[in-house]
Specification:
12 strands; ten-stranded mixed sheet; alpha/beta
């Protein structure tokens, strides 16, 4: 499967010791107690991920080093991805219990009622060939269904264009707002697809539970569908990816016009976080702390059970839904959710290798036997009656929501997503 891309296959960083830095950082797994507990669910990497940390690593020496293909090939991923993972490990906060993890909730109290200013997109985080997208995208803030909604519109597409708009639901464990990385990602996707994107600032836990939040997002979805009089595509990352699945299931349950396509990045499908693989996978995840995730999921569930399909869509019905695509990495806790979905349905599974190179390999895994390493060691459930149109792309060594991050592999993933949206 060939996906065209305009990105550069190499990265130039200013450091003569980048090779050693990458090796050291990628092998470092340590918990920092100097970070605020409110950063535990993936926020701790945001300041360090690109702005100062990578530039600091790149400035270890003054000589420009072009990362050779043998180095990235040896690691199975780009040097930038290795560096970023190491930086995330250094800033990860680990809670010893769910009781201590409850420290993340006070930070979220009142957040939904505070004025939100959209972060500036990080143009330096993207492939240089795509910086023009930032000039070609118009961003405006509106209010719909009682919440702020940011509209990302391509300037060079005529108003008569009939391409489906995309409702993008950001991640953040249902207790955090979108970041500069989300904004950069959406801007890039607008430039790649020529579509208009809507990103709502939906209500957050602990003050607003799943029922209230889903009602709000469903109202927005229906308003957009009525306005455009055509199907709306859904896309989301992490918690937002799980919410995309919930919206699709609710549209089917309520006999409403459903989305035409759904794309989910590392979706959070089971907020109970009790799947057997979770414990093992957390050891490779530099972003998500298990106890903090349990606390956030319980807060989001409100008065509903954490396994209620309106809270955890993994336990809902997956038949009679629109085509769904999932992109997920192997160095992330929520891989367990995608593997569980693969066991419950007849999902098509692919592995993407060499995403940081000129010639990424997308290998199909057509049979349950070949798919065993992808869906995990658990028993494959009887999917004979669950004919779900689900396609899973697994990226070895990639972290949680990696398509949103400023790494070469994200460029290939975004090209793939644009290809999916463009397909009939």
């Amino acid at each position: 499967m060939a996906i065209s891309s305009s990105r550069s296959p190499r990265i130039s960083l200013s450091s003569t010791s980048l090779k050693n830095a990458a090796k050291t950082l990628s092998n470092t797994k340590c918990a920092s107690s100097t970070k605020s507990p409110s950063q535990a669910l993936g926020l701790s990497w945001q300041q360090a991920a690109m702005g100062g940390a990578l530039s600091g690593a790149a400035a270890l020496a003054g000589t420009t080093l072009t990362v050779a293909s043998f180095l990235s090939g040896k690691q199975g991923r780009s040097v930038r991805a290795s560096l970023l993972e190491g930086l995330m490990w250094r800033s990860k906060v680990v809670f010893e219990s769910t009781t201590s993890a409850e420290a993340i909730l006070p930070h979220a109290v009142g957040l939904s009622n505070k004025l939100f200013v959209l972060p500036k997109p990080l143009s330096r985080a993207l492939d240089p060939a795509r910086r023009r997208f930032f000039k070609d995208v118009r961003i405006t803030e509106t209010e719909r269904c009682g919440i702020p909604v940011f509209e990302f519109e391509p300037k060079n597409v005529p108003s008569s264009d009939k391409r489906h708009p995309v409702l993008y639901l950001h991640g953040g464990a249902y207790i955090h707002r979108p970041t500069s990385y989300h904004v950069s990602f959406v801007v890039d996707m607008v430039g790649l697809t020529g579509r208009k994107f809507y990103m709502p600032i939906y209500p957050l836990a602990p003050e607003h539970g799943a029922s209230e939040c889903i009602d709000c997002v469903m109202s927005l979805y229906q308003e957009l569908h009525h306005e455009y009089d055509q199907p709306i595509d859904l896309m989301g990352d992490s918690a937002g990816g799980g919410m995309c699945a919930i919206v699709a299931q609710q549209c089917r349950n309520q006999d409403l016009p459903g989305p035409s396509k759904v794309v989910m990045l590392s979706p959070w499908l089971d907020v109970s976080m009790t799947l057997p693989e979770i414990q093992t996978l957390e050891g490779d995840d530099p972003m998500i702390d298990l106890n903090a995730g349990i606390v956030a999921g319980d807060s989001w569930s409100g008065d509903r059970d954490v396994r209620d399909p309106l809270v955890s869509p993994l336990f809902g019905q997956w038949n009679d839904l629109p085509p769904m695509t999932i992109l997920v990495g192997t160095h992330e806790t929520l891989l367990a959710d995608t593997r569980a979905l693969a066991r419950r349905t007849d999902a098509e599974c692919y592995v993407v290798r060499g995403a940081h190179t000129d010639s990424p390999e997308i290998k199909p895994l057509p049979s349950p036997g070949e798919c065993a390493h992808l869906i995990g060691d658990g028993p494959r459930e009887d999917s004979e009656n669950v004919r779900a149109d689900v396609t899973i792309y697994e990226y070895p060594l990639m972290n949680h929501i990696f398509p949103v991050l400023p790494i070469p592999e994200a460029m290939q993933a975004r090209d793939l997503i644009a290809h999916i949206f463009a397909a009939k």
